[in-house]
Structure formats: C-alpha cells, structure tokens
Amino acid sequence: MGANNGKQSGSEDSDLSMRTVSTPSPALILPPHSSPGVLNGSSTSSSTFGTETIAMVHTPPTSLTHPQRSLRQPRDQQGAPIDILPDHAFLQIFTHLATNQLCQCARVCRRWYNLAWDPRLWRTIRLMGDVLHVDRALRVLTRRLCQDTPNVCLTLETVVVSGCRRLTDRGLYTVAQCCPELRHLEMAGCYNVSNEAVFEVVSRCPNLEHLDVSGCSKVTCISLTQDVSVKLSPLHGQQISIRYLDMTDCFALEDEGLHTIAAHCTQLTHLYLRRCVRLTDEGLRFLVIYCPSVRELSVSDCRFISDFGLREIAKLEGRLRYLSIAHCGRITDVGVRYIAKYCNRLRYLNARGCEGLTDHGVEHLAKNCLKLKSLDIGKCPLVSDAGLEQLALNSFNLKRLSLKSCESITGRGLQVVAANCFDLQLLNVQDCDVPLEALRFVKRHCKRCVIEHTNPAFF
C-alpha cells in the first residue's frame, strides 16, 4: 500500500489549496543506501536494512522545477517531458507510492517536494523492516506533517508498522500525541510495546476503529484505565470505538484481560484471539455479555475452550457470521450443536482438528446453517461419508470445503458432494484416501472447483 489506502485514493482532486507553497521545512527520506545526512551543519546517521535505511533528515532540494516550461524553448533547453504534467496528475501518481518512495520523490526538486508533502497524500504511513529505527521515523514524519497545524496531524488516519520489531512505547507515544484522528493502527509482531503505550493510543485517539496487536506478547489489555483490573460499565463513561481487534499470539492474555477488553470495547464486531492459550470458557462469557455485536470470532488453538464456551458464543445468535474453533480439542458435537441451533446465519466455520466432531455434528450444521459457504473439518477422523451426504443434501451454497487428512472419507462421499454442490470453488482432499475416479467425477460436475490433493495421478 502506498501513502494512501485504496478507499481514500478516490477522493483525490485537483484542488491544490492545501498544498504547502511556503519555504519547505526539513523532510524525511528513506534512502536506498546508508549515508550521512546533514542538517544545519549537524550530521544524522542512518543504519541500513537491505535497500532501506532508517529515516534521516534532509533539506529540501535547491533546484527549482517549474510546473510548465515554455514549449517554445529549443529542445535541448527544455525540461524532462514529465515536467509538463499538471500537479493533479502528479498527485494521482504519488497516491500509489509507499511511504519511503514518497519521501524519496521529495528529494527530486522543489516542485516535487511541495507535491510529495501535500497533506492529502499523508492519510497513511506504512513502515516496514525489522531493523528500521521506527521510533525515530515516526517522530520525524509526524513532526514534518504537523508543521502547518502545530503539535497535531489532522490528516493522518492509518499507521502500519507491522514487523517493525524495534518499535517501542516511545514510538506509540508519538502516534498517540500527534495523531488524534487515527482510525487504523497495525503493529503486528512488535513485541516490545506494552499495555501502557496501547492505553495512550486508545485514550488519545477516540476515532480508532481498527487495531492489530497480533504478536505483541506484552499486551494483555485494551482499556481506558491505567489499572487493568478496573472495569468500566458500558452504561458509564467513555467507550473505546474499536470494532476490529486482532490479538492473535498475545500469549499472556487471560480471562481477566478479556473481561476488561469486552467492558471497554463494546462495539466490537471482529475479534481474533488465535493462540491466546490462557483463555477459558469464562472469558467468552464476559465477551458475549458486553459485546453482543460480534460478527467474526476466532479462538483457534485456545486449548481450554470447550463445549461450554460454544454455548456462550451461541448467544450471539444470528449476528455471528464467522467462527474459527480450529484445534480446540475439548469441543465435541455438543458444542457444535449449540452453534448450529442458534447461529443459523453462519457463513464460515473452521473446525479443523476438532477430533470430537462426528457425522452427527456435521448433520446439525448442514440442516440448520443453510447459508454456510465455507467449512473446514479437516483432521476430524470421526467425520465420514455419512456426514458428507448430509452436508451435500442441505448446504447448496457451499463454496469451500476442506477435508484434509479426514481418514474416513472415501470417493462415495465426494461424489455426493459434487453432484449437489454445483457452486463449489475449492475442495481440499489432501492426505485423504480417495480414488482417482472420484476426483475426476468432482472435476466434471464442479468445473470451477480447484481441487487440492496429493494424488500424483490426478492433474
């Protein structure tokens, strides 16, 4: 993604009233090779990461390129052909550039410098690199973007620093203090950030709707109180506006933390808790009490989640569209039956590795969740052709089906699926003992279906 995300790029127009036309102040660049930068006589060092280095300060170009050079000049005295492009065309091109590329464009000439720092191009900052000095980069970028509105950047809505392992609380404090209009923050894999820095962001950025802290192992809470043990009633005080929260691989998250998160983030619609291995059914009870609007939920690889947890999740009823319970070994047909009975608008279910799931559970899903489009029941050894037959006779909207490593599946079950689920687009039968004829039968009846298999004779 460039300096502007997809849904924002369409809003660009030719009005340049916001463009900085005064003497430019120092800009940030991410040069392709490590070299010293000089500002006001002092040097700023940079460290190299492949073809990208840390941010360093650079004075604006001294050369002046006019928007339109006279076409009457001799050919050898005219500027480059690109110089005849109008400003709005340059802005459209710049919207597709990444943050470091945009900073490099600012070095070409004074005209490009002014255009590259147009506020409309800076709704998004995207930095990457596990040795990038991201704290310093954020500080310099936000300082430059705040020059027209001291101390605050009113245009910046999205910050993506996923994979920047050197991000610390200091970098997040910069974002919290300078970006009050922030709506989208991704910092997956930044394991050096803590609860305190996240608290600063959510308390200072009231419009934040999308937060990805996956892999941030020190983060155990999202709240508006410094003391994570203090609950905030949904009926009292300010609430966090987050709707999308990804806490995958936040290993230290416990039921108490989830309780606090649910009490503060009552507008949640998408919640991903993959491999939060300390969570239990009690945490899911708190979630359903405070966050009744959850549409997508993943508790994959949460080994303590059982049928009792699914009974709580089932209270979301028709609002639930996506559910992942993969590798939750304590889940059986009993829990799946709760989901099938009450969450009849379910579109996606991942139950891979739920070894307690049998044909009876699949039958309940097939007869109650008629809008099911994607089902993963791979590595469920107790699911056989009988379950597939029930699925095929009821789930006519099925588009994706994974049966990987299902030991009891044979060609008969696959043929019934192929004969009834005409819209099937993906079928995974890897490590299944199915004959070649059954695979060919599927291919004939489901012409748009991609078959993932391990049969060397089928191609």
Automatic annotation (TrEMBL):
A cellular component term, taken from the record's GO annotations: centrosome
InterPro entries the UniProt entry points to: F-box-like_dom_sf, F-box_dom, FBXL15_LRR, Leu-rich_rpt_Cys-con_subtyp, LRR_dom_sf
Pfam families noted in UniProt: DUF7885 (PF25372), F-box-like (PF12937)
Localisation per UniProt entry: Cytoplasm, Cytoskeleton, Microtubule organizing center, Centrosome
Tagged with keyword Transferase: no
SUPFAM superfamilies to which the protein is assigned, alphabetical: F-box domain (SSF81383), RNI-like (SSF52047)
Family classification: Belongs to the FBXL7 family.
Disordered: region residues: 1-47, 59-78
Comp. bias intervals (Polar residues): 1-25, 60-71
Protein's UniProt keywords contain Secreted: no
Pathway recorded for this protein: Protein modification; protein ubiquitination
Domain called F-box: residue spans: 79-125
Low complexity: compositionally biased ranges: 35-47
Any single GO BP term: SCF-dependent proteasomal ubiquitin-dependent protein catabolic process
SMART domains linked: FBOX, LRR_CC
UniProtKB keywords: Cytoplasm, Cytoskeleton, Leucine-rich repeat, Repeat, Ubl conjugation pathway
Stated name of the protein: F-box/LRR-repeat protein 7
